[in-house]
Amino acid sequence: MPMSIEPEPYRLRISGFDRSQERWIGTLLTLANGRLGVRGELELAGSRSNACFLSGLYNNIPLWRRELVMLPTVSNVYLPYHFDIIDRGSVERLLDMRRGLLVTRAGIGRSIEYYSENAVHRRRKNLFMQRIRLTSDSEDVVILPIENPLNPFLYGYTYTEHLSRERLVFSDNILRVFYRLRDADTMLEVRMMVDPGASSQLDRLVTRDSAGFIIRGRGLDVKRYVEFYIHREGAKGDLEEIVREEIPDWASLLSEHMDSWSRLWDEIGLEIDGSDRLAGSITFYTYHLLQLIDDDGEELMIPARGLHGIGYRGHIFWDTDLYLLPFLTFLYPRAMRGVLSFRCRTLEKAIQYARETGYRGARYPWESVDDGYESTPRYYPVDLDRCKCIDILTGEQEIHVTGDIAFSVLFYYNVTGDEEFMKRCGFRILIETARYWASRVEYDAGKDAYVIRNVIGPDEYHVGVDNNFFTNLIAKYNLKAAFNLVINALKNDEKLLEHLGVSLEEVMEWGRIAEKISLGRERDGVIEEFEGFFDIQADGKVVERGAKRVGVSKQADVVLALLLKEIVEGVEPEILRKNYEYYLERTTHESSLSLPIFATVAIMLGIDERLELFSRVLETDLGNMYGNTHDGFHVAAAGGIWYAILFGLLGIRLRNGELVYHPRRSGDLRLAVNINYRGNRIRISTL
Q1: Residue 496: how many other CB atoms lie within 10 Å
Q2: Which CATH architecture is the domain 4-235 placed in?
Q3: pLDDT at residue 492 is higher than 90
Q4: Does residue 432 carry a catalytic annotation?
Q5: What is the domain partition of the chain in residue ranges?
Q6: Continuous segment of H or E residues that includes residue 566
Q7: List 43, 396, 460, 566, catalytic entry
């Protein structure tokens, strides 16, 4: 059946069905509320990858240490007497982003019509809702199961069983399934209540790997409500507590959910003037970012692939802190505070990590999970038959994440003026991360500069390099920020040093290092990505050394560093242009984090290909550009789209502690949005 994907303003319409593409579509149609995510494969296709995720629910696993747990599939619907629904029927799905609703319509043969509405409730964080209508000329049967999950481990050859089903409890039209997390004293309860509708018959279903209800009737109108509960050993509460017997009010719950989404969109005030596809694409990525916000949580753990899939095993990278920074800070600052609060909670683990690796202060892990420990695998199997593996050194050498977090703390503080957060934790993060850099740098007498050796920068093609420009610049900002904040605060609080546990000598050392940290060479305004990068070029072309590419970058590195500098400090336009042009020719954009940064700089500079680059970014997930959207949503790319909007189109900058902005039109793209600055809401528009 031919398939088409059509983004429209606040809508995504998918017509047709192609089983080979369904895991990709399942990511595009994922529903989430910041705590619960439910993938959106066609519920009639029987996909067992149509799983659910709870934010922060991790479990132990070989190789990756811990991973996000795939929860039971709760959205699948089986119509046992209609096997031709996929091959011969017509299918159309509509993701209504304004209301947070997924609507599916399918025709079966000539006389049967299927209709469903799915929602993950935005206010009731543990609730998935589904309504199913089936019309036909005869009595029909619908099966609604809860199906046991299996996390794929390696290439789909092996699986990890995190959840062990312990028991079932039926009570009229309520089913409670209890699972034990294998490596933790934790129970998961999946509670399903079914409203079978008038004059329908309800039967129980129990198999080895699923349980649920069978509904028989004519003109079926069935409602399913599924709730997820975590029971931890030692916590208060009785697993056998009495469950309410009343059937929920579908209309009231749905109205509450849709009103919540409507208020959120109104608060942001996003207006886009452009083609339907352009407007629809921007709202699509914005919607999926908003789905990752938990309004009620104190902290926010956002994996690199969201709550949309098991990509990167649900680990948390610098993507969350740096790439979501402008979107969350300006549009939903409470959520950015939640992201940083996760870093607050895991600060002691970062201090321990620095100590274990021979340094002072706090070193944050390259790949984080709920407990804050480093979870980057040391190797990865690439050929199971021959037992071949590749070394993964990012956990050891890609240390810029520590500076990225510090940069985010300072940016958040400058935009929001959140003194309470800084006193509670922000100050300490900046101080402990500055301590790390002060112990990580080495003084090079020949250069009369502080250097940082043996690192991996954002460009991950080059391993074990010295003086990566991005890493050194982010370390410089970290040290400088900690120095300035402490020195300025001392003017009003003479006991601050004692309170923070630092000496004046230590603080002054941060200032000295920041001033003399090496930022490498320049050649005609072009900044060297790392020490020796210029030397591995041959007449400006990429050269080969063995099987390894050198002189080419995986993703934005120098250009990203200059973009951050431009946002908070300023960069000469000619320098920005020269580096953009030089590195654009030498970057493969193999990472989804790359194109958004180049597109942002292109819009800033008014370069001809700016909208072409921006349009390519919009195809990251909608066009499955990297062929791996089935593993989850590309969170950083979506955040990068908002770099282009906020810093490119709207021209936002921070200058000397003040917000400035110079909106500009770019081709056919015009938009307006509400941003937050120091407790005030400001509308900025290019319309």
Answers
A1: 16
A2: Distorted Sandwich (2.70)
A3: no
A4: no
A5: 4-235
A6: helix 558-568
A7: 460
